[in-house]
């Protein structure tokens, strides 16, 4: 399956993270990546996870990132740096190559640097922050394409990730159909509420008619 034939990826790309988050709450699934935010509020991203796990550098130190040529186009690069905020694992060389290769975006449990180029290219990067200090000789790649942790959410290779101005959610592969079905129902209900209010209906009546206060309540 390629990005061009991935129907669930197309569905997820049409939904916002708030609706997907509400859907996961309703289904009792944890997928909201806590404190992972876009470096620019205009960034939008959707794709399947290619995961990297980092650890402290050994002696001699290992590499921080020679994996980029193996990432399929349309993927989201997911970097678990354990939330470290004192060393980066993403910068302008990786941004340039990822943009050129058609990578959908990068998500980091940690920080990045060289934000100016990602803004210029409009290449989506989501992280806990940004700072200039390199991760070279401080951290190293431990494993590729294994389950990782991003903002207290488990991400497995091939899981769908959706990012927008509000942050990032991960849709576990075994639950993505149910999440997407529920999120589409939630967005449809909210659109009905908006249409009703625009037509003159009171907000409380429109919400009651569409069971707004139960939309995200766990089933």
List strands and helices in order, with pairings.
Blueprint: H1 7-13, H2 17-27, E1 37-38, E2 45-56, E3 76-88, H3 92-101, E4 105-112, H4 115-121, E5 125-127, E6 129-130, E7 139-144, E8 148-150, E9 153-155, E10 160-164, E11 167-171, H5 176-198, H6 203-209
What does this structure look like?
With 219 residues, the chain is α/β, with parallel strands linked by helices. It has a domain at 30-171: Glucose Oxidase, domain 1 (3-Layer(bba) Sandwich), CATH 3.50.30. Helix content is 30%, strand content 28%. The protein contains six helices and eleven strands. It has helices spanning 7-13, 17-27, 92-101, 115-121, 176-198, 203-209, and strands at 37-38, 45-56, 76-88, 105-112, 125-127, 129-130, 139-144, 148-150, 153-155, 160-164, 167-171. The strands form two sheets. Strands 1, 2, 3, 4, 5, 6, 7, 10 and 11 form a nine-stranded mixed beta sheet that branches. A two-stranded antiparallel sheet has the order 8-9. Helix 2 packs across helix 5. The longest helix is centred in the last third of the chain and has 23 residues, at 176-198. The chain is elongated and about 65 Å long. The mean pLDDT is 94.
């Amino acid at each position: 399956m390629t990005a061009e034939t991935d129907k669930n990826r197309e569905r997820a790309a049409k939904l916002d993270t708030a609706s997907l988050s509400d859907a996961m709450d309703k289904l009792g699934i944890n997928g909201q990546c806590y404190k992972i935010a876009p470096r620019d509020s205009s960034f939008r991203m959707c794709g399947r996870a290619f995961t990297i796990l980092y650890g402290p550098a050994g002696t001699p130190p290992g590499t921080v990132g020679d994996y980029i040529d193996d990432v399929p186009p349309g993927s989201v690069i997911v970097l678990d740096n354990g939330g470290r905020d004192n060393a980066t694992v993403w910068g302008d060389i990786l941004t340039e190559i990822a943009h050129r290769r058609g990578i959908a975006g990068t998500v980091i449990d940690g920080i990045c640097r060289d934000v100016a180029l990602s803004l210029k290219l409009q290449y989506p990067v989501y992280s806990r922050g940004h700072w200039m200090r390199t991760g070279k000789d401080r951290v190293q790649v431990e494993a590729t394409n294994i389950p990782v942790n991003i903002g207290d959410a488990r991400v497995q290779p091939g899981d769908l990730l959706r990012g927008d101005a509000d942050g990032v959610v991960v849709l576990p592969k075994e639950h993505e159909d149910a999440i997407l079905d529920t999120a589409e129902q939630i967005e449809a209900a909210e659109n009905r509420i908006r249409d009703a209010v625009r037509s003159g209906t009171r907000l409380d009546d429109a919400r009651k008619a569409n069971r707004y206060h139960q939309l995200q309540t766990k089933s």
